[in-house]
Automatic annotation (TrEMBL):
Species of origin: Acrocarpospora pleiomorpha
Name this polypeptide is given: ABC transporter ATP-binding protein
Annotated keywords: ATP-binding, Nucleotide-binding, Transport
Ranges where the ABC transporter domain occurs: 8-246
SMART domains (alphabetical): AAA
GO molecular function, one term: ATP hydrolysis activity
The keyword Phosphoprotein belongs to this UniProt entry's keyword annotation: no
Superkingdom field: Bacteria
GO cellular component: plasma membrane
UniProt cross-references to PROSITE patterns, sorted A to Z: ABC_TRANSPORTER_1, ABC_TRANSPORTER_2
Pfam family, one: ABC_tran
Length: 248
């Protein structure tokens, strides 16, 4: 593996169902420390692209490399082990268990199951909870958390696996306005500083997403329409025509 290889690399990825092209020849490199905002109109193929990355769907063409390793044919759990984390729905949380116990379970799962039960470090749990700002709520049953705090717990559970790449598909959806700011702050921390991690996030609220992103990728009808700095992408006439025009 070379130190200069992108953390995540998509090469000419395509996916189609029943002859209908849904992801069309997408190539994109993501480096450690990058926060890539993925935007595009409804049905543009954003979630489908994430499904290809996590292995939920198999591409009809193209390759996916993670830290220089070809993961195109790997099962989802093997990709997760190699460092690809994806946000789940809040139902992945055990409502009757405490916040702490949920993170403990996630840590154990990431470490390979019950064998490591006793070795699960409480320090790790506290660290992850502190990363998402839930330290004060550690003993609360997870079911009693607000939607925003449930999302933070979900993120904490993802962090338990120490992912190199995090895929967040509309993590702010369904979260009350009052909770958006603090959740956004947690998300902003995920690839901050000299982080070795990269984040790809889909979000329809452009103000929020552009505030978080170091780079923006625009999808339109399955294809990557544009990719670059926020300023570049937003000034691109093709983007304005295809996306901004369609969205407003
Ligand atoms: N399993 C599937 N079978 C058939 N069509 C599918 C399947 N999954 C997605 N599609 C279609 O592919 C297109 C892209 O869907 P996708 O969910 O990836 O879009 P999206 O960009 O995530 O949209 P949104 O912003 O609404 O979440 C849509 O037309 C959708 O109906
Ligand atoms: Mg989607």
């Amino acid at each position: 593996m070379t130190g200069t290889a992108p953390l995540l690399s998509m090469r000419r990825l395509s996916w189609s169902v029943g002859g209908m092209s849904i992801v069309d020849d997408v190539s994109l490199d993501v480096a450690a420390g990058e926060f890539v905002g993925v935007i595009g109109p409804n049905g543009a193929g954003k979630t489908s692209l994430f499904n290809l990355l996590t292995g939920l769907c198999k591409p009809v063409a193209g390759r996916i490399m993670l830290a220089g390793r070809d993961i195109t044919g790997l099962a989802p759990h093997r990709r997760a082990r190699l460092g690809l984390g994806r946000s789940f729905q809040a139902s992945a949380i055990f409502a009757s268990m405490t916040v702490h116990a949920n993170v403990q379970l996630a840590l154990q799962a990431a470490a390979g199951g019950l064998r490591s039960l006793r070795r699960t470090s409480d320090d790790r749990i506290l660290h992850v909870l502190s990363d998402v700002g839930l330290s004060m709520l550690a003993t609360r049953p997870a079911g009693l958390l607000s939607h925003g705090d449930k999302r933070k717990l979900e993120i904490a559970m993802l962090l338990a696996a120490a992912p190199a790449v995090l895929l967040l598909d509309e993590p702010l959806a369904g979260v009350a306005t009052a909770d958006i700011d603090s959740l956004t702050e947690v998300i902003a921390g995920l690839a901050a500083g000299d982080s070795a991690r990269a984040v790809l996030m889909v979000e329809h609220d452009l103000d929020v997403l552009l505030g978080l992103s170091t780079r923006v990728a625009v999808m339109h009808q399955g294809a990557l329409l544009a990719d670059g700095s926020t300023a570049e992408v937003m000034a691109d006439p093709a983007v304005q025509r295809a996306y901004l025009g369609a969205a407003t």
